[in-house]
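Duplicate of #3305? Posting structure anyway:
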């Protein structure tokens, strides 16, 4: 799964190993991709933390990639008019706590 495309870092890493993948679907949402993988014979790549947390729910097996992947940054953005909204601030704290635990 690449961000809306069919080529990316994984393809470069596989090429270095003399391998290539056959991209059948390009799905922009991890949960949809997990559901598809659970109901088919297809493979998908997801961040390790996500895989560890959802593998049981989708009856998926986890395997390490045969190469290392670069890290990435997740950003949390909101409109400035919501800066002092207590419910919005509470939700932001929840998201941060969930993603960092």
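Output from current build:
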């Amino acid at each position: 799964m690449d961000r809306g495309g069919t080529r990316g870092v994984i393809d470069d890493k596989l090429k270095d190993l003399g391998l290539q993948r056959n991209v059948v679907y390009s799905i922009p949402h991890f949960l949809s991709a997990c559901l598809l993988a659970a109901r088919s014979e297809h493979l998908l790549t997801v961040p390790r933390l996500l895989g560890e947390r959802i593998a049981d729910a989708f009856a998926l097996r986890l395997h390490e990639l045969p190469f290392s992947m670069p890290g990435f940054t997740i950003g949390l953005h909101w409109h400035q008019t919501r800066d002092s909204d207590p419910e919005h601030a509470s939700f932001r704290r929840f998201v941060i706590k969930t993603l960092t635990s």
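Confirmed duplicate; merging threads. The chain has a mean pLDDT of 89. Helices lie at 9-16, 30-38, 48-58, 86-100.
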